[in-house]
Specification:
The chain is α/β, with parallel strands linked by helices. Helix content is about 35%, strand content about 15%. The strands form two sheets. It has a three-stranded parallel β-sheet. The protein has a two-stranded antiparallel sheet with strand order 4-5. Helix 3 runs antiparallel to helix 4 and helix 4 runs antiparallel to helix 5.
């Protein structure tokens, strides 16, 4: 930052936009605090969820912190988040080289080779500053013993919200 002219007496001022949800807002506050160490003063801008996606699609932000769900297999999100033209590739990152790697890992049957390809993709994304991953969160589901028929998914907290088999035991 000092090479770019920033320092203790000349700090970069930015807005950090985030959906107004605790599980996203709290990490944004921590990130803003950490940015102070590199002469960046962030101002938190919380956005109601109904306005968030239109704002992101217009690219009407300086820094935006958003969540991106995944699971144990990155194949379901690599193209969406990082592929050229991916539906959730909000910042428009595009690398034909990364697209080829995403396709290769998706069709690789050997798990060890596939793991190496995914690590190569991760390195390339980090080098390009494609869409930095700021944090990984953990979530859990709790329920009472009288709740019956609840199926907890092993690949994502958000995949099992179908309640047609759920019932309460008295």
């Amino acid at each position: 930052m000092e090479k770019l002219g920033y320092g203790p007496s000349n700090r970069l001022k930015i807005k950090v936009s985030v959906r107004d949800l605790p599980y996203l807002r709290d990490p944004a506050v921590i990130m803003i605090d950490q940015l102070k160490q590199v002469y960046i003063d962030g101002e938190l801008e919380t956005i109601d969820t109904t306005n968030w996606f239109p704002k992101v699609m217009r690219r009407d932000y300086i820094v935006g912190l958003t969540g991106a769900g995944s699971g144990p297999d990155p194949d379901q999100t690599l193209q969406l988040l990082y592929g050229c033209g991916g539906e959730l590739n909000y910042n428009g990152y595009c690398s034909p080289e990364v697209d080829k790697l995403i396709d290769r890992q998706s069709s690789e049957a050997n798990q060890e080779k596939r793991k190496q390809l995914v690590w190569e993709i991760e390195r390339k994304l980090a080098e390009d500053g494609a869409r930095p991953i700021i944090f990984y969160d953990r979530r859990a589901t709790c329920w009472q013993p009288r709740v019956k028929g609840l199926t907890l998914m092993v690949n994502s907290l958000f995949n099992g919200w179908r309640m047609e088999d759920l019932w309460l035991d008295n």
